[in-house]
Description:
The protein has helices at residues 52-55, 58-65, 73-80, 149-152, 170-179, 200-208, and strands spanning 2-5, 11-15, 18-22, 44-46, 68-72, 85-89, 94-96, 101-106, 123-129, 132-136, 157-161, 184-188, 213-215, 222-224. By secondary structure, it is an alpha/beta fold.
Amino acid sequence: MNITFYGHACFGIEINGIHIVVDPFISGNPKASHIDVNSLKADYILVTHAHQDHVLDVEKIAQNTGAIIISNFEIVNYFIAKNLKGFHLNHGGTFKTKHFSAKYVNAIHTSSFADGTYGGKPGGFVLTANNKSIYIAGDTALTFDMKLIPMFTKLTAAILPIGDTFTMGIEEAIIASDFIECNKIIGCHFNTFPPIEIHIEKATQQFTSKSKELILLEIGSSIKL
């Protein structure tokens, strides 16, 4: 499982030649200006919720690649109405292929498109392939529902938002890592714009002090699990 950070909360995940894009917000992010949206490969697009900073490039990528959009009922219907392909999920449901599975789990946030269309309830994904699992939390506050995840999945790593203001911050993310029983955390949703700026060295030290690893990838860089 190879994971590439495209900025904000957008990641590319490659599994045995299958390409997944998560929450694509690239063309509207000046810090990701060196990423060419039109060159991205995608067989599937996972969407946690409908906010613009998570769906801006969904339509463009899906048109370019023919990718299947996987999300909740309302979000998938929104894109199907644009003649794109999608697969409906709701909380607790799992999308399965021979390459991977993606379970849609709870998140505490809001969800609406830029045009005001209701985006359903927000969520996250537990992505499993090749005996490895990663939790993609989406935009969320800390929630006891996270404790359900290790009851059915042993996580290899987790992608958690850490920027505060619109999601949980560093302190809550550390508690979240306890809830999900995973000490390898990939941070996202930080430093894109002023309300979510963090002190990177301090954040890393806070995790280290709790015997945990906070991985903060440069935009365009990758990690292999």
